[in-house]
Design goal:
alpha/beta; Rossmann fold; five-stranded parallel β-sheet; 8 strands
C-alpha cells in the first residue's frame, strides 16, 4: 500500500517502511484514524479529503452531549457514543474516519479492536508536524483555542507513539506519516472499494487547498 515518505522517522517504523509518493490509497470499507495534537489540522485534513458523511468527530460528539465541544466533562459519554457509531457504520460496510487526537495508546487500541471485530483494516494517518507550527495553528483558530500546555502534552504523547513499540506495532494495516506542511498540502487520498463493496471503482478525493481555520 502506498504511503507518504516520513522524513527522519523511518527508523522508528521498522515494520512499516515508508514509501515516497503523493498518494494514500485507502481500502473501502476501513477505519481511518487521524492522529495528531490539537491544532495539527486534523479536522481541516478530514474535510479536505473525505465527505462529512465519512467523518466522526470527537468535538462534535462533545458538543452534542453538552452543547460545548470544549467541555471535557462530557468526554467519556461522547466517546462512548462515538465508538458505538463507529461499530454500527463499520458493520454496515462503510468507510469511517475518526477525527480525534488519538495520541493515547488506549484510544487507538480501542478503535483498532472495533475494526478487527468488523473484519476491516484500520489505517492511521499521522499529522506529525513541528511543535512551533502546531502551536501557531492552534493559536490562530477562529473557534476554540486549546491550552498550550495541553497541546504540549499531546505532542509528547505523539512522540512516544512514533517511537519503538508504538503505533507501528498496534495492529494497523498501514501507518501514513505526514511530517511537514508541504506533505500535507501535496498529498492525495484515494479510496479503493474492496470485495463486498457496492462497486469496484476507485474513487479519488484529491486535496483541495482551503483555509486551515
Amino acid at each position: 500500500m502506498p504511503g507518504v515518505e516520513a522524513r527522519g522517522r523511518a527508523r522508528a517504523f521498522d515494520g512499516v517502511p515508508p514509501v515516497t509518493g503523493v498518494a494514500i490509497l485507502l481500502p473501502d470499507p476501513a477505519l481511518i484514524m487521524l492522529v495528531g495534537a490539537a491544532g495539527a489540522g486534523k479536522s481541516t485534513f478530514a474535510a479536505r479529503h473525505f465527505t462529512s458523511a465519512d467523518i466522526l468527530s470527537s468535538d462534535a460528539f462533545r458538543a452534542a452531549v453538552s452543547g460545548d465541544e470544549a467541555d471535557q466533562r462530557s468526554t467519556r459519554t461522547a466517546f462512548s457514543i462515538l465508538h458505538r457509531e463507529v461499530g454500527r457504520r463499520l458493520a454496515a460496510g462503510r468507510l469511517v474516519v475518526v477525527d480525534a487526537t488519538n495520541v493515547e495508546r488506549y484510544a487507538r487500541r480501542a478503535l483498532v479492536a472495533r475494526a478487527r471485530l468488523a473484519g476491516v483494516p484500520a489505517i492511521a494517518i499521522v499529522l506529525a508536524l513541528p511543535a512551533a507550527i502546531v502551536h501557531d495553528w492552534n493559536g490562530g483558530r477562529l473557534g476554540r483555542v486549546v491550552d498550550p500546555a495541553v497541546v504540549d502534552r499531546h505532542l509528547e504523547r505523539l512522540t512516544v507513539a512514533l517511537g519503538a513499540g508504538g503505533i507501528a506495532d498496534e495492529g494497523f494495516a498501514a501507518v501514513h506519516i505526514l511530517g511537514s506542511v508541504a506533505e500535507i498540502d501535496r498529498v492525495a487520498v484515494e479510496r479503493e472499494h474492496t470485495a463486498g463493496a457496492r462497486d469496484s471503482s476507485v474513487a479519488a478525493v484529491r486535496g483541495r487547498r482551503s483555509p486551515r481555520r
